[in-house]
Amino acid sequence: MNMAVELCGVEFKNPVTVASGTFGSGEEYGEFIDLNRLGAVTTKGVANVPWQGNPTPRIAETWGGMLNAIGLQNPGMDVFCQRDIPFLKQYDTKIIVNVCGKQIADYVQVVERLAAEPVDLLEINVSCPNVKEGGIAFGQNPKALEEITQAVKAVAGQPVIMKLSPNVTDITEMARAAEAGGADGLSLINTVTGMKIDIKKRAFVLANKTGGLSGPCIKPLAVRMVYQVAQAVKLPIIGMGGITCAEDALEFMMAGATMVAVGSASFYDPLASVKVIEGIERFMREQGLTDIRDIIGCVE
């Protein structure tokens, strides 16, 4: 049985990674699962300087999911390179680094810093709805998205994956803009902007008022967008958004995703990503499939 896939010229032992921001850089989850089992670890967002993130409260449970307004809190690229990359290099898994910024120069600085580092792919986060300055504009404006894609590609030492925001009218327009800018691949979807109100306090639950909605409630939306984008561009896709089990992951792959990322599910089940891998293997055995690539984009 072949579980290996190739994405942007990089070969992965299996098609399962984790979603940025839900797994740190793997250290805390390493206490629960063998990181060697994962096709890749996708890190939390890395900025050029430390970010404090948004004020609390910044997490709220919702029906079928959760809202977060963390604001991409992270210690910055220097700490990441000195601490997190050496940790991850102990394992037989690929490293996908999520890069965030508030203006193009910030992204470029991080991408330049990472060019000589032993990481495999860069995932450029232009779509987080919790950052008030910069990020969201790139993810919602096709011209800005094409511009930032060109800028990071010009200095990148690794293939560049642009992570698309679902908070747009036409996701295919954004995908084409990233493709025009020279992107090597795409990740989608990021969280959907949402809100929760405490009716007894008559106040917003999150200090930021709005947050990013993730979890099973967004999966049908995410699968639809992955399918649309797979039909619109020739770039490989990492699909994500509400994956909790192998069946969910297989939907994304049949819709056109080469790889999938498990996100919020890891919060309530640290073993979720490994269970997805095992479930895909079980499905292949039951269906008499010998190569995982046979299901990628199999629905028309």
Structure in words:
The chain has 300 residues and is α/β, with parallel strands linked by helices. The chain has helices spanning 77-88, 104-114, 135-140, 142-155, 171-180, 219-232, 246-255, 265-268, 272-287; strands at residues 5-7, 10-12, 16-18, 40-42, 59-62, 65-68, 94-99, 121-125, 160-163, 185-188, 192-195, 197-198, 203-204, 210-214, 237-240, 259-262. It has one domain (5-53, 72-191, 215-295): TIM Barrel (Alpha-Beta Barrel), CATH 3.20.20. α2 packs parallel to α4 (142-155), α4 (142-155) packs parallel to α5 and α6 (219-232) packs parallel to α7 (246-255). It has an eight-stranded parallel sheet with strand order 3-16-15-10-9-8-7-4.
Write the layout of secondary structure elements.
Elements: E1 5-7, E2 10-12, E3 16-18, E4 40-42, E5 59-62, E6 65-68, H1 77-88, E7 94-99, H2 104-114, E8 121-125, H3 135-140, H4 142-155, E9 160-163, H5 171-180, E10 185-188, E11 192-195, E12 197-198, E13 203-204, E14 210-214, H6 219-232, E15 237-240, H7 246-255, E16 259-262, H8 265-268, H9 272-287
Helix pairs in contact: 2-4, 4-5, 5-6, 6-7, 7-9
